[in-house]
Amino acid sequence: MRLKLSQKVTGGVLSGAIQRGLTLTIPFLIIGSFALLINNFPIDAFQTFIKESFFDGIISQFLITIYSVTLDSLALLLILTISVSYGQMIGSELYFLYPVFSLISFMAFCGGLTDYESSIFNATWIFTAMVVTIIACKYFHFFEKRRIKNFPLYSTGAGYYYNLAITYILPLLAIICTLALLGFILRNLTGDANVNNFGSYIFVRVFRNIGATLPGVILYVVLVHILWFFGIHGTNTLEAVAIDLFGPSFEINEALIAAGKAPTEIFNRIFLDSFVFLGGCGTALAFVIALLLVSKKNHNRRLGVFSLSTTLFNISEIPIFGFPIVFSPTMFIPFVLTPVVLTLTSYVAMVTGLVPIPTEAVGWTVPLILSGYMSTKSFSGALLQLFNLVIGIAIYIPFIKITENAQVDSYKDIVKKLEQDVFDSEANNSALKLLSNTYKYSYYAKTLAEDLRVGLMKGEPVLFYQPQITNTGTLHGVEGLLRWKHPSFGYIAPPLLVALASESGFLDELTFYLMGKANQDGAKMVEKMGQEVYISLNISPEHMESQAFLAHANHLMLNAKEVGIHPVLEFTERTVMTAGEEQLKVIKDMQKQGNEFSIDDFGMGHSSILRLQEQSFDEVKLDGSLVTQLVDNPRSQEIVASIVQLARTLDFRIIAEFVETKDVRDLLEELGCYVYQGYYFSRPLPINELLDYLTIFTIKKGEINK
After folding, report:
1. pTM of the predicted model over 0.85
2. Are strands 565-572 and 596-602 parallel, antiparallel or unpaired?
3. Are 323 and 303 in contact (CB under 8 A)?
4. Cα(683)–Cα(290) distance, rounded to whole angstroms?
5. Residue range 202-213: mean pLDDT, rounded
6. Which has the closest alpha carbon to 489: 440, 536, 452?
7. Beta-carbon neighbour count of residue 132 at 10 Å?
8. Any alpha helices (H) in 429-545, and if so which ranges?
């Protein structure tokens, strides 16, 4: 149920585009946050140095520039990343036009770039920018699906991009006019087109009769975080509310202190900043520490590391938009609940006199403990912050686990679909582009491909080996089978790994790595057995097209022979049937140097028999469907008998795969097949288990019967 609900909430194109858009802004969030942190680092001597002493503040100006083009341009970044993501997710070949439409639409809605005191691309415009972007993307997609080429402006025979540009004159004009009119109406009715700004006027009226009471403060905290959850800068949106709500409390406390009396008003801005918003909105510091404590996903832990240094100084954008918390259904509860609980704990601590009422304003970047002490002039203030932090961590931990488990479950389900699609494509001999934007699961395929690439760099892929046993009970050799255990999703089917590596352009690198691994492991087998061992590896069909690959493979195979390994490269029968003369020439040249080749899944194909007659291959592996049906299907027995007779005539080895019972093994021996591979003897084993398995053999030297 949890998985289905998560997929239902997050599986749509719009929510997916927003989530992906938020993720793509992470590097800009990190750069901008650190620039903001350094420029506001709460040490007076440091501030004097960067803002006054060193070349009249050139460092500060540089940091302001970095901040302004990254974190302070977050609305612009989200317009671009969300719109591009939307275009790609729907599989549009014109996805590059979506950010153009969205950006122009947003500027039209705002009435241009010059009518505002600050940039319309800064963080306060995030929600407005996202809403307009979504409208523009939906509109553009609607028109794209119904685009008519032969209307009056279309010019037959003109260039594609010329006609494309002409085609979009009318829809672009329509959306510009529509959004410009909507923005004009809002500005004239409310004085501003920004949701963040005119929305605050509504909230002021709601809070006017509540005042700085406990219910009023809790309502304020809840609304701030609901707004943040939907990408609206909650504290900025409710700035007018905060002034009305907390301004009088601060003035009353100041008057009481001036009169030599104790302050009485607990709820003020200092109270929230120092004891509720620890690390920024949503008590972000508690979230980041919880993430570091319990997250099992590498990228989330890395995000926590990046976030920690900024959230310590109350800059929360990295975890809020990077995880992301916004638009994440599971994280809504702790994001809103945590600051509400801390409001209550802090209120109780102060109303009971355990902690003094905070009256001293501190800089917004002053970190935890120090800000608690400075605002209350008491160590109890620092202790209350630590207590609140622990509560916040405890609240976040189960929800982080739930979120990650849901993500893993959902991804595992999609990985199964990827594996099935690859299997179907091979069975149907059809092309499948996993990384194409038109493929439904391309985002996940790209993620998995990058994980595999990094895993290869770390040496994570391994070979499992399935023994090949002769009819006399001796070891003939092993087949090396690719295995890679994803850190989060477990073992991935090898055909999917090969397809991803091929499409991503590192299949040669993966194959050479596996051949080197086979040489290392093979040397251990030879040492253990005291005899030479055959090791066969499957080779992708496209390698038949690369003479450069075969040349390098030849070098690795010659190295293997020096330590007593007989390497065998396996090609499927389908590949052999389509091999050209150039590829066959290279194979024969490699055979002359002592290398061997095998036809896998052999089933008496006409072209592959011709290759055997030409002595291009040294071994065939019987098609698994022949072997599994052998006992109950006389036709399969006849075909195997024919292949055995052919092998004796043309002098090649036969190996039977999928041997899973003694009956099948015995029948194969009766038919003249003397080398077997399958679960009757052993499942594929990692190298350490294989070496243990090899100890059961009594070494018998001699030729294998043919």
Report:
1. no
2. parallel
3. yes
4. 41
5. 72
6. 452
7. 26
8. 442-457, 494-504, 507-529
